[in-house]
Write a structure and sequence with these properties.
Number of helices: 10
CATH architecture of the largest domain: 2-Layer Sandwich
Radius of gyration: 21 Å
Helix content: 25-40%
CATH superfamily of the largest domain: Dihydrodipicolinate Reductase, domain 2
Strand content: 15-25%
Number of strands: 15
Order of helices and strands: EHEHEHEHEHEHEHHEEEEEEEHHE
Number of domains: 2
Largest sheet: 9 strands, mixed
Shape: globular
CATH topology of the largest domain: Dihydrodipicolinate Reductase, domain 2
Distance between the termini: 27 Å
Length: 346
């Protein structure tokens, strides 16, 4: 793999500069903050290319990935497009011998992840996924609590998000484009849990309910709707388990969105706040509440730059990013088959 003497030598670009969340701008700014050099933007909307030229004076603009790869000297490309396009675009970039970062989720299926990992190895480049939330303040605090032994040994981790709202009129409401209801926030939540439980995965069970929102007038994708609710349960070789549930038909969702249950207590995460409850001798309960620390998402691209310049270990490898996708892929298949499925990548 080519190495660089300093981050400024790493020319970077993005595929996708759409207006939603201004993600293209965010990625280029974060890469620049890590010392790398923004040089290229690919976007199908000519109006957004004009915005990119204003945001980054002198930047190269392209209307296709093929054109960018043929004409630009870009070294690393981040893909910020709908989920079902990640694998084909990623493979195109990797096949051209360029490093590739994919917005989460890495892809929709395990096979797509496998193909990109294999191509990256064949071409001597890296493939990674933008898991900047690996460094969110709430998971950093939770890891601190767990590693200190405050709540004992982890028994299970429950991950949940719920509401009772109709789907938005955007591509994330299409199952064939997004992968399903679990593929947006569910990928983040599983990545948190995989940090908490380092044991190999052995089995995944999936459950799904659907047909309610898709039958309502005005659904943007009535024949291709996400599930109304979906759940996966992950079994680990250690005997621990993770439950992930995302719902759009839950009128009374639980407090918080992550609960870690241990042998001595529990740790509940409520965005900015946390609550740690510990069982004391004599049947007493001690509850500690506090604020989660600030996140350190900037470390994602800093690690990419350090890997390419100093050989620092890559934290979000393709193999690591594949783990939550493998869980979700198996979960979808399990829900359809009505049985638990063994894992291929533990």
């Amino acid at each position: 793999m080519k190495t660089y003497s300093n981050p400024a030598e790493i020319k970077v670009g993005v595929v996708g500069y759409g207006g939603a969340f201004n993600m293209g701008r965010q990625h280029l700014n974060e890469m620049r903050a890590a010392g790398m050099m923004p040089v290229a933007v690919t976007e199908v909307d000519p109006k957004r290319l004009e915005v990119a030229k204003v945001d980054f004076p002198g930047i190269e603009t392209y209307s296709s990935v093929k054109d960018m790869l043929a004409r630009s000297k870009v070294d690393l490309v981040t893909v910020i497009t709908p989920h079902n396009t990640h694998a084909p675009l990623g493979l195109e970039i990797l096949s051209a011998g360029r490093h590739c970062v994919l917005e989460k989720p890495m892809a929709i299926t395990t096979a797509e992840c496998d193909a990109m990992i294999a191509e990256a190895k064949a071409k001597g480049v890296i493939v990674s996924t933008y898991h900047n939330r690996h460094w969110d303040g709430w998971i950093l605090k939770a890891l601190e609590i767990v590693r200190a032994g405050t709540i004992g040994s982890i028994v299970r981790v429950d991950l949940f998000m719920g509401s009772n709202n109709p789907p938005h009129a955007w591509w994330r409401s299409s199952r064939s484009i997004s992968g399903g209801i679990l593929y947006d926030w569910g990928v983040h939540l599983l990545e948190y849990a995989l940090q908490l439980i380092p044991s190999p995965i052995t089995e995944v069970s999936g459950y799904a309910s659907e047909g309610y929102w898709s039958a309502q007038p005005g659904h943007p994708y009535p024949k291709d709707a996400n599930e109304d609710e979906a759940q996966v349960t992950v079994r680990f070789a250690s005997g621990q388990r993770v439950n992930l549930r995302i719902s759009s038909v839950d009128a009374t969702p639980e407090r918080g969105f992550i609960k870690i249950t241990g042998t001595k207590g529990s740790h509940l995460i409520e965005w900015n706040d946390y609550e740690t409850t510990v069982a004391l001798p004599g049947g007493l309960i001690q509850t500690t509440r506090g604020k989660n620390p600030d996140g350190q998402g900037h470390k994602f691209y800093e690690n990419i730059a350090a890997h390419l310049t100093r050989g620092e270990a890559l934290i979000i490898t393709g193999e690591w990013a594949r783990r939550p996708i493998h869980i979700l892929d198996l979960g979808v298949q399990s829900a359809k088959q009505g049985r638990a499925l063994p894992v291929v990548h533990s």
